[in-house]
């Protein structure tokens, strides 16, 4: 399945514009190149399957749906199963709910929640400065001959994130995310697997309204 | 010692004692309830007083604008640091306190069962049923995929019902709209402004304290701008800038006008009397009158209201007539006449004039209104003291006139001729009173009262716009319109708040208001908290919740902390003092006021087109009061003005009755009373024609005009016995009129509406009295001569 993501990514104009030459091929892929490519992406869409191992639950909690990312920092997570719901993560707030009700959390005075939701957005928005400020970054690229797979491990450097998250491990091939594993300090673990990744996604007006529940402004 | 010298010495000693008494006992109150009528109005008055001195009104909002949000935040942080060190700063907030999360946890987590439901009797039985708990468990499971999941997972073992999270959500809904937090700093939703809230130690109405403080803020803004190299635009909202602006405006007006007035008065006295001693003595009765009035007020009431001092001092100001009348007569007397002899000529007029004024004010004392009683006692006693000073001290200290000065002689001669000339032109003389009658009648049809106290102060439009702009960014509540839950104690007031909350929710759903904010999300009555605990105690919540969690796929063993908590002895209910002494104080501070008879919790309203439906909805809630500050003040002043008008009319009648009893001749009654009545009527009419709506200040000034007008009439009536002294009387009136116009009338040039009202009314009224008093006397003499004569015209 990862190969399919890579193929999709290879068609991305953003990636084609990558000066490091890391477009379709994965020659010399670096963390800088990866982040630069994310910064240039007009938008991202990906299907996800999420499995949460939670100590309180007898069985893992599974969910799936689609995520949408509109630069510079709006992420929409639309869950389709086991129930329909949405989460819209913006720089200053998170809105979540379903068709019948919506709740909003302002992030300014909730550093724990903000740190938790920011971790993924920071990466896919290519915000290198914030990423290095908040995390110890370990990037490991496999031999290009092996298909350009890479692994990025983020270890929180500062509280309160460091008190909640032990590490985040992302894997990908080329410029396409494949998985994200989040391990909490308490032992709970969330594994997200991405598919059908489109890193050249653009959003027209109606989509912005529908997917990001925004007014006419560019997200 | 001659008796008069002994009397003067005793008088001076008494003045000294009065001075010492006043200086050592002076106590001024500004409690507005003193001037209110009904119990309900008094309660609202106490509320208005408590609001004026509350944390809410002491709060100054500073909005820091800069080219970028980052600069605005930096500017606000630096500015707050500087201002926090200022001794006038009681507290300063520029974001949510860093320790608020732990404080919320400590205060509320162990009391999460206290705050389960606003209607525990009806809601909790259903919520604690197997079906209800299944829903709770399902909701918890859904929460585990939200961004808040890390927090929820930590709390869930002890709180699977998510009661604590529900409390946090309630707090979230209660936070003011329009603000968010960036880098621990409040910023507006549009990110253009950083916001600082600052509480002052002194009352915002204490302009003397606030003026230097506002200047310090300006200096701090400039210093921070230089330090950061950023151009900061700081706007302010609060009562403080308005009180400073009002003081500046009034002080500047009074300074400007009083310099002109004082110089003109001194020149007038020096020009006419050519004596510094006379100049000094002329003001002695007013000073003694003020001391006597204040001493009486303090002796009767223990303290005096600020408004009483202002009103009574204005009325006592009419005693400037006493020395003026005496000195002009003395100056025009035969050379070598002793002052005591000159004084004996004017004494009957002074005596009667003062008696009528005191009687007029006595009507106020009989009104039953505490504030008016105070004004009557202070002003009445003050006039008595001023008269006593004129009677016992002035004649002894006044020099014997060796020879009338040529200019005084000239003026007297011309006045005598003028009066004789006018006396022969009856038709011309008629013009003045007829014109006054016509003006009064026409004016009465158009006369309008305006009891809006806001009209007495001219607000700087730029300051109003600045305040509105800042408030529009941070608060959306209706200024001055709120609902108060009153109770003799905190518990009763909180129970009332809970009833109000329910009614307002219903009103909101009916579209009667946009929203509201109260203490309710943070604090419930002990009764409601205990009802929740009782519902938990009598339920089987621990095991039932475990079973429901098991059915939802949770490991039941993970929730032992919850079962322990349910079985544990609960903490005492949360009370105000718990919150007041915690970092949460910043969230709850604006909602509580303390009055002399209890506690009030405030509910602030948003977007209320009409308060009447809310009043109807809350009519049966004991202790609930819909309060509209502006309407209340207008209503209060309106009621007050109506009551005062009634007692003043009665007082006027009593004055005329006294004059009638004294003179027992209707023509003399007319001479003494008509000028004052017509002066008041025509003044009110002229003010109306000038476009003024009359208010309480006009009313007090008209009372002064009436008091002085009656004096003028009596002085003229008394002059009938001394044809030679008539010129002196008219000269005295002209001089007194000039003094009054110079001292009060010039205030008509002020920009401040209250000062302008006082000045215009007094100026027009006294000029009218001056024209009317001699005219009416001369007309009455002609009339008396025509009908066969009486002592009005025979004593020539």
Task: Describe the model.
The complex is a heterodimer of chains A (219) and B (796). With 219 residues, chain A is α+β, with helices and mostly antiparallel strands. Chain A has seven helices and eleven strands. In chain A, strand 4 and strand 5 form a beta hairpin. The longest helix of chain A has 14 residues. Chain A is globular, with a radius of gyration of 17 Å. The N terminus and C terminus of chain A are likely disordered. Helix content of chain B is 66%, strand content 9%. In chain B, 46% of the residues are buried. The C terminus of chain B is likely disordered. In chain B, the strands form four sheets. In chain B, strands 9, 10, 11, 12 and 13 form a five-stranded antiparallel sheet that branches. Chain B has a four-stranded antiparallel sheet with strand order 3-6-2-7. Chain B has a two-stranded parallel ribbon with strand order 1-8. The two termini of chain B are 38 Å apart. In chain B, a hairpin with a 2-residue loop joins strand 4 and strand 5. Chain B has 796 residues and is an alpha+beta fold. Chain B is elongated and about 115 Å long.
The number of distinct helices of chain B, counting runs of at least 4 residues, comes to 32
Distance between the termini of chain B: 38 Å
Radius of gyration of chain B (Å): 35 Å
Helix-residue proportion of chain A: 25-40%
- The whole-number mean of residue pLDDT values of chain A reads 77
Low-pLDDT segments, ≥5 res of chain A: 1-27, 215-219
Biggest interface, CB < 8 A: A-B, 32 and 29 residues
SSE class of chain A: alpha+beta
In short:
Chain A is α+β, with helices and mostly antiparallel strands.
Task: Give the helix/strand layout.
The complex is a heterodimer of chains A (219) and B (796).
Chain A: H1 2-10, H2 13-16, H3 31-40, E1 44-53, E2 61-70, E3 74-81, E4 85-89, E5 93-97, E6 102-106, H4 111-124, H5 128-134, E7 135-141, E8 149-156, H6 161-164, E9 165-173, E10 176-184, E11 189-198, H7 205-211
Antiparallel strand pairs in A: 1-2, 1-11, 2-3, 3-4, 4-5, 5-6, 7-8, 8-9, 9-10, 10-11
Chain B: H1 3-25, E1 28-29, H2 39-52, E2 59-65, H3 69-84, E3 89-93, H4 100-108, H5 120-127, H6 130-143, H7 149-155, H8 163-174, E4 179-182, E5 185-188, E6 193-200, H9 207-228, E7 233-237, H10 239-273, H11 276-282, H12 284-301, E8 304-305, H13 306-316, H14 321-331, H15 339-365, H16 370-397, H17 406-423, H18 426-446, H19 461-474, E9 477-487, H20 490-509, E10 515-517, H21 526-537, H22 541-551, H23 560-567, H24 576-580, H25 585-588, E11 592-595, E12 598-606, H26 612-617, E13 624-628, H27 629-663, H28 666-689, H29 696-718, H30 723-743, H31 753-786, H32 791-794
